[in-house]
TrEMBL record:
<keyword id="KW-0472">Membrane</keyword>
<dbReference type="GO" id="GO:0006869">
    <property type="term" value="P:lipid transport"/>
</dbReference>
<feature type="transmembrane region" description="Helical">
    <location>
        <begin position="318"/>
        <end position="342"/>
    </location>
</feature>
<keyword id="KW-0812">Transmembrane</keyword>
<dbReference type="GO" id="GO:0034045">
    <property type="term" value="C:phagophore assembly site membrane"/>
</dbReference>
<keyword id="KW-0445">Lipid transport</keyword>
<dbReference type="GO" id="GO:0034727">
    <property type="term" value="P:piecemeal microautophagy of the nucleus"/>
</dbReference>
<dbReference type="GO" id="GO:0061709">
    <property type="term" value="P:reticulophagy"/>
</dbReference>
<dbReference type="GO" id="GO:0034497">
    <property type="term" value="P:protein localization to phagophore assembly site"/>
</dbReference>
<keyword id="KW-0813">Transport</keyword>
<keyword id="KW-1133">Transmembrane helix</keyword>
<feature type="transmembrane region" description="Helical">
    <location>
        <begin position="500"/>
        <end position="523"/>
    </location>
</feature>
<keyword id="KW-0072">Autophagy</keyword>
<dbReference type="GO" id="GO:0000422">
    <property type="term" value="P:autophagy of mitochondrion"/>
</dbReference>
<feature type="transmembrane region" description="Helical">
    <location>
        <begin position="400"/>
        <end position="426"/>
    </location>
</feature>
<feature type="transmembrane region" description="Helical">
    <location>
        <begin position="155"/>
        <end position="177"/>
    </location>
</feature>
<comment type="function">
    <text>Phospholipid scramblase involved in autophagy. Cycles between the preautophagosomal structure/phagophore assembly site (PAS) and the cytoplasmic vesicle pool and supplies membrane for the growing autophagosome. Lipid scramblase activity plays a key role in preautophagosomal structure/phagophore assembly by distributing the phospholipids that arrive through ATG2 from the cytoplasmic to the luminal leaflet of the bilayer, thereby driving autophagosomal membrane expansion.</text>
</comment>
Amino acid sequence: MMSFRSKDTNTQTRFNWPWRSESPLSAQLLIDIPPEIELSDYRRLPGSGSESPSGLLHGEGFKEEPIADLDIFFERLYEYFCAKGLRFIVTKWIIEILNVLFMVFCTGFFFLIVDWDALGHLKCGVEALESGEKPCDLMQVIKHNPLVPFTFPKMITVGSMVILTTYGLINFLKFFVQLRSTLNIRDFYCKSLKVTDLEIQTISWPKIIEKVVLLQKSQKLCVVRDLSEHDIIMRIMRKENYLIGMVNKGIISFPIRPWVPGAGPTVKSHLQNSRNHLILPKALEWTLNWCIFQSMFDSKFCVRKDFLTSPAVLKKRLIFVGISMFILSPCLVIFPLVYLILRHAEEIYNHPSTASSRRWSNLSRWIFREYNEVDHFFRHRMNNSAVHSLNYLKQFPTPLISIMAKFISFVSGGLAGALIIIGFLGESVLEGHIFGRNLFWYTIVFGTIAAISRKVVADELQVIDPEGAMCNVVQQTHYMPKRWRGKEDSELVRREFETLFQYTIVMLLEEMASIFITPYLLIFEVPKRVDDILRFISDFTIYVDGVGDVCRFS
């Protein structure tokens, strides 16, 4: 991954501390550096002839209240740009609330109300007539007292519904809390930047940043100095840059087995003569963000002294979150399960080949991401790399599997085709039963097997050139570790590449498994790396005038 060292003359090393062998986090970790002047204190400074920077969100007139937090301001400026206007933000909020309500309904209906045992024995249509029973009544599979008896699985289901409802309620209230600032951002776009909601749908982000920088000639955003485009991006990506650095320095790696779901490429361990595996599922990313990055900065945008001098506090916080997550894990695992069914079941049913599609894992997104690379640019780069990545994996055909897949595809496709022809001749014939199943069921099963097996068959026109295929991938991912160079056609590189570019269904199952793996990591493994985490923050943090503490690589 490319690293960019700041060349700003207004930067200085924020931490220059000797790490002692007996205690990696000793006292005197911080040098007393005068804090950056806060906007809230600007009006109390001795007269300097400067104008108050307090007119940022309401056009030409200046208001009394300045921007309290420039990080949040620029983050919401970028979020508003990505959302493409206020109406899309409101629409997205409404859809998210409806999605949560729908998931709560589906969870309760399918896990509590539906009697699956009765549904399995229910006979309908021709089967009911042949057995002499009454036509099926679907109300027979509805439980009238779904919570009686109140078993442990039902308790887990109710707990998951409560958690999901709470999450939806928080999002509902959060929208109204942030609505005023969202309206202020819209006013800033319209009145200060002269960009309407219609124009924001087509304008590029670099042009927005350029307008913000030019605006500082008339309106002060930072009282220390005028911010450059680089400064603004460093503020937006302040926390993300630290996580990118930790992943690339191997801090987020643990001594786990390669078969553990979500385990990625190996990195050399600094403590032992062994190699650890990088791992960063979504659940672990969220918890690290909450435990570390949301609490490491003070109101001056500088790393807090007590955060760095109290590793025991961070360890306790990680363990507490891990234990809490372990207790709630049976409830939390229902969310991705329900989402998997609602999001992908219909897609796989109508397009079975999507089961063998691939996506970049969550870990790969932090390995490939550049410092100061905002999200929509990164997603564009990753989307462009998908086709080249699929082509690289096709450079390793397996003749045995391909031959077997051809046979399975031929047999299952032929049987499905024969049943379809029979259906054209007489539709009622498909209602006949073989081994307790009607022919409609066999048509669907054979068609699904044929579609999946065809995706496994190697392309006869495929040109085998692993080096060229990897070169095309690297042009987009910007990732080529030394151990891969000259070994593009090796099994080692292929296996590591597959841990980053996974089958969609495998990645979804791994995210479900991460609900149970993350508590283990937070309780037993991550606390062992707290000293390394704090050492990284101290060694790779610099102070930039007008920005605060940032990762050195940014």
